[in-house]
Write a structure and sequence with these properties.
Layout: E1 5-9, H1 14-25, E2 29-34, H2 37-50, E3 60-64, H3 70-79, H4 81-84, E4 87-92, H5 108-136, E5 139-144, H6 157-176, E6 182-189, H7 196-201, H8 204-210, H9 219-231, E7 240-243, E8 248-250, E9 253-254
Parallel strand pairs: 1-2, 1-4, 2-3, 4-5, 5-6, 6-7
Antiparallel strand pairs: 8-9
Helix pairs in contact: 1-9, 3-5, 5-6
The structure holds NADPH dihydro-nicotinamide-adenine-dinucleotide phosphate (NDP) and 2-hydroxyethylsulfonic acid (8X3).
2-hydroxyethylsulfonic acid is lined by residues 146-148, 156, 251.
Amino acid sequence: MQAKWAIITGATAGIGWATAEELAHAGYSLILIGRRADRLKELRDTLIRKVAHQTREQEFKSIAIDITKKSELDDFIQSEGPTINKVSVLVNNAGLAKGTDKFQDAKVSDWDQMLDTNVKGLIFLTRGVLPYMIKRKAGHIVNIGSVAGRWVYPGGAVYCASKFAVRALSEGMRMDLAGTGIRVTNIEPGMVNTEFSLVRFGDSEKASQVYSGMTPLGAKDIAETILWCLQRPQHVNIQELVIYPTDQAAIGQVVRRP
Ligand code: NDP
Ligand code: 8X3
């Protein structure tokens, strides 16, 4: 049997990398997207070493693109058409938060980057892939939202707005795609220990403090959940899932031990 194809954005680190490993182990062929070509190569080599020897049908393609650049997304959709035509899963994972400054002090360039990546990158790529899925009457879009898409916190206005947008987009897509057979899932994690906090603060000391004294989720926890959603029978659509670490009762309530 031919392997199923999945696209994973933000595959060079964290949740995306772990999802690539999980889906590869489950037999998927993958298109891996991120900006860092060296990390994509490392991931591809890892997958080939760990997984591909099990089956000759699996393929791993790495595509270094910046999803904030619409021209790069358009080129990808055009040049990879024959492979995208086989894709049954799109994991819209690439995303980031920048800074925790108050709204009145925050950098406009940080806002641009968050909105261009978390919202516009997601919608343009999805818009490019969907016609292929609709033609085949099958597909699964998995969006990585956040608990920040349900609850706002100080210093998070624009990041939270971007994840509220991911939730609205997931609902809107699901409504517009009703009857096509395409499923849409929004996964909403709490604290996951990845490069996320390093990117947000640009400082490894500050980033490590985020998880001090508590046990955060790991990227694999989210990756396993994504695979579980994909593996539900076709008539079952997990619409949304909120996943917190046990040590985080709510967005601003974290239990820390000395
Ligand atoms: P990481 O920083 O570890 O990974 C983010 C990934 O996104 C990287 O692979 C990065 O790759 C990619 N990326 C960022 N910008 C772009 C871009 N312009 N074009 C292409 N790829 C891009 O963070 P996580 O794994 O934690 O984050 C994954 C998703 O999970 C994000 O959407 C995040 O908002 C969400 N999330 C994270 C939580 C957490 O606590 N960690 C909690 C809830 C949600 P590269 O730099 O190579 O481009
Ligand atoms: C990441 C979770 O709480 O840092 O989306 O916003 S949080």
